[in-house]
Every structure is written in C-alpha cells, then in structure tokens.
Amino acid sequence: MSRLEGKVALITGATGGIGRAASKLFADEGARVVLVDLDESALQDAVQSIGADRASYHAADVTQPDQAQNYVQAAVDRWGGIDIYLANAGIEGSISPIPDYPIDVFDRVMAVNVRGVWLGIKYVVPAMRERGGGSIVITSSTAGIGGSADMSAYTTSKHAVIGLMRTAALEGAPLGIRVNTVNPAPIETRMMRSIEEMRVAALDDATVTVERTKQAAAARIPLRRYGNPEEVARLMLFLASDESSFCTGGVYMVDGGRSAGSP
C-alpha cells in the first residue's frame, strides 16, 4: 500500500520548489492533495501535472484569516477532511543589516512566514480533530536554529515557527495531532537564487558573482552542495505518514550536515 493512501494533504506554498516536489510526492504516495498559493495559473499548472483526480487547488493569501478559513473549508468540501497540513508558504525578504532593513518588508515576512502558519494551524486543527488526528509539518530552515547576518526578518520568522510548532505539538497531542518542523539548508530553488542575487547586489563588488556566492555557501555544507527539493520532500513524507507515529515536537534537519559544525 502507498504510504499516504486514503489521506488528504493540504499544502501551502505549493507552487514553489519544495512545495511542488512535496505535492507530487504526496500524490504519488496515495494522498489527495489541495494546493494553496497566490498564483492561480501556477496552481492550475501544478494540478495538471499531478492530475485532477488526485489534486485540487485554492488560490489564497495565507496571511488573511478569511482566506485561510476558505482554503481549509475547500479541502474539506472537496475531499472530505484533512489529515496532513504542510505549512510551507514562505518568503525571503531583503538582505540588509537591521538598521537599514525596511520595516514594511520585515512586517510582510513575519506575516507570511509566522502569521500564515499560525492561521493555518488555527483552522486546520478543528478539521483534523474531526478525523481523529493528523500530522502538521512546518517548513523552517537552518536559519531557524542559528543566526544569519543581514536576514533578520527571515531568521526571526524561522525561529518563531519552531516555538509555534512546540506549542502546537503540546496542544495537539491529546487530539492525536502531531506537529514537527523540517529545517532545510540551502536548496536549489527560486528563493535561493533570489538570496544569492541580493547578496551580490548588496556587496556592489564586480568580482563577486552569483555563482561564486553559491559556491561559498555550498562550501559551508559538509556534503559540499545544495540540496534538491525532492530530498526535503522525502523527509516531509516521512513526517506526514504513519511511519512517524511517535514523532511530535521535533526539529528535523535536512541540511547536508550544515548544523553539525560551527557557524
């Protein structure tokens, strides 16, 4: 039997690199998936690649309570309930020291990366309770367990969701709801290209290129490379499945050994 047979998975940030990989993997493992993101055309493309018999979508801004309620209700209406919630929507913000960091950008990062996760949990938990339990997986980052210069908003947000996860795990345990975070190192995604480009622009040094910036980041990872979205998705699959039935309140690294060494 497939590992998620009979399960319904709700996935935010579903059209990004990690979200799309997880959506496909979860569907391949038997789940019915509801994809949530802002870009409707990208959502339509993602559903088409999976198959409308296994996937549906709901365009939404995860920071808005009514829209969060609506995407949860859409999953219940379409597939009968929710067993898995992958809180994966996130943005990177800007690259600049705290005194120069734009306040509006800080607020937006916190809204998407923290408030969005909190709202999802708020409205998903009652639906999961109706199913007798479930699994919530939150995408954090290696930035969630250490500092990252010039990325105050992103780093703060990824620390915050670990605290949120631990609280939700304690609240969810009596309901049969498990909650964990997955913490990737740099992954081959649009977000990492954006971060690399912003770092190069901030240095204003013609000798520093995006490729050299990437090489320097990869050199700090013991496996000497970025991960790929499918490698993150496989850990998410484990935590979403019944194979991780005794796992809750945990911070799970998928970082090529990055967190094992010194900063």
TrEMBL record:
Residues 7-185 form the Ketoreductase domain. Keywords: Oxidoreductase. InterPro entries: KR_dom, NAD(P)-bd_dom_sf, Sc_DH/Rdtase_CS, SDR_fam. It comes from the Eukaryota. This is Uncharacterized oxidoreductase YxbG. Pfam families: adh_short_C2 (PF13561). One of its GO terms (biological process) is lipid metabolic process. The keyword Oxidoreductase applies. PROSITE patterns: ADH_SHORT. GO terms for molecular function: oxidoreductase activity. It comes from Geodia barretti (Barrett's horny sponge).
